[in-house]
Write a structure and sequence with these properties.
single chain; mainly alpha; 4 helices; 78% helix; elongated
Length: 86
């Protein structure tokens, strides 16, 4: 299995996000940057064997699903607040 540099790996995750989920480049980059800020990629930086194309696909799915789950949770919380105001 070929390993990527850290930068190549992040680029691959971004590319997979645009391809799998039809996100535009800016949205995919924003998602990857947010994951970096949350230290999601720290193990990848430390362990070269984690920086593969296959792992990039898995991580892209994980990041997108987490984003979707956060959005659903926020929407439910907003609905509850609106219900309580009635």
């Amino acid at each position: 299995m070929t390993t990527l540099t850290y930068e190549e790996y992040l680029d691959e995750v971004t590319t997979v996000l645009t391809e799998l989920y039809d996100l535009d480049d800016d949205a995919a980059i924003k998602l990857v940057v947010a994951a970096q800020d949350a230290e999601f990629f720290v193990p990848h930086d430390a362990h070269e064997e984690m920086r593969t194309v296959e792992q990039a696909k898995k991580d892209a799915v994980t990041l997108f699903e987490r984003k979707q789950n956060r959005q659903q949770t926020q929407e439910k919380q907003q609905q509850r607040v609106r219900q309580q105001k009635k």
